[in-house]
Amino acid sequence: MTRYVGAIDQGTTGTRFIVFDHGGQVVATAYERHEQHYPEPGWVEHDPVEIWENTRTVIGAALSRAGIEPDRLAALGVTNQRETTLLWDADTGTPVHDAIVWQDRRTTERVEELREEGWADTIRERTGLEADAYFSATKAEWLLENADPIKLQRSRPADVRDRAEAGEVLFGTVDSWLVWKLTGNHVTDVTNASRTMLYNVRECEWDDELLAEFGVPRAMLPEVRPSSDEETYGTTDPDGFLGEAVPVAGALGDQQAALFGQTCFDAGDAKNTYGTGSFVLMNTGTEAVESDHGLLTTIGFQRSGEPVQYALEGSIFITGAAVEWLEDVELVDDPAQTEEIARRVDGTDGVYLVPAFTGLGAPHWDQRARGTIVGMTRGTRKPHIVRAALEAIAYQTRDVTEAMEADAGIDLTSLRVDGGAVKNNFLCSLQADVLGTDIVRPEVDETTALGAAYAAGLAVGYWKSLAELRDNWQVDREFPPEADPAAMDARYERWGDAVECAKGWADDGVSH
């Protein structure tokens, strides 16, 4: 009987389930979008129940399309939008509030307090992260302080924090929520733990001092396990929606999953995923390289019985979302149009678009930055703005890769790319020109889901070694740089001026 591995890819805008065969090829896929909630300016929330229901739907749909019974799944892996934070009642499984999404900026003032109180260096040294509202710690703190009291059975409402201290309310990122719903076990993996701003990435344990500062009780935290876990996180309920006890054996945050799916297993290997945001990760091996240039030190992955593999990361908050914005304001009818529209002009005619809609991430880390268009004249037309949005994606990537090369002391000779935007050949060619390095696009571009499948499949012996996975990886197309380097350097330098215009624009949530 032919067997397969399934991957749940729970992202910012939707949930996908993909069935992979032994060759790492897609056998079947299904996708469902979920609603984005914006209760106040700068706030972004998701309904965890909707995400779970969509997860069940896409698993069933993909298996049905492929004609595969659940007992033919050797394992399930999970990959997820990172940093997005939720709390739920351990007895009923009911979320105490909508999940606070990684893009959410409601805790900006709290982060500024932390910086003023001198916490930034401690946070960076222990967690590898910048003090920023992006990460989970201040989101969890806000939920504990602001979520409505929980009504106990046959009792009065109880404070959420009191119940959390008793382990009756659980904390997790979306991977923990899905694994708990699938198996009943409260676990996370090292990559997701490393994104909470509560986990010491060098000691590989929850940090008591940070937990105390944010008021997060240890009793509500998930157990931290390897990304590819031979002991597994548990099995699905044979009496549940699948009707089978399928091992759930791997989990990685989405960007680390893409690193794994791109087979970046060795120090110096790097990839960029173009999604809602873009995330450049470079494997640094067993060394947690400290960044002097605004990058994050994060955990890349861990296999059972092996040491943690670290990575440097450049987190760019808005790239694909800039293309979605073009659609929102009706400059394009569909994201696929951007390639054709951008090719109508030879350049942007001096126009720069800085898509700092939710602040700037690496290497700038400016929570008060806001989206900006500069350089427009009476002759500016739609193609100039559309092209400027695509150029912004490429320029932001160069911001990060230059910082990465400086930190790691390694010159990138090629960059492996994935995500929906890399179907755009114009963007790939532009990225090669802006970086002055080869852009390599794999044959299977669903590398985030593939990484989760690989982690789960390795754990249960479906794949025997990393060498097998490397053999699966195939190049679809390479894009070499073709533009004049001096001209590209001049355009990139002007980009830096545009970024300075965007910085510090918002003050206390009010734009001037």
Automatic annotation (TrEMBL):
UniProt domain Carbohydrate kinase FGGY C-terminal: residue ranges: 271-459
Entry's transmembrane regions: none
InterPro entries: ATPase_NBD, Carb_kinase_FGGY, Carb_kinase_FGGY_CS, FGGY_C, FGGY_N, Glycerol_kin
Database matches in Pfam families: FGGY_C (PF02782), FGGY_N (PF00370)
Pathway membership: Polyol metabolism; glycerol degradation via glycerol kinase pathway; sn-glycerol 3-phosphate from glycerol: step 1/1
PANTHER family, A to Z: GLYCEROL KINASE, SUGAR KINASE
Entry protein name: Glycerol kinase
Gene: glpK
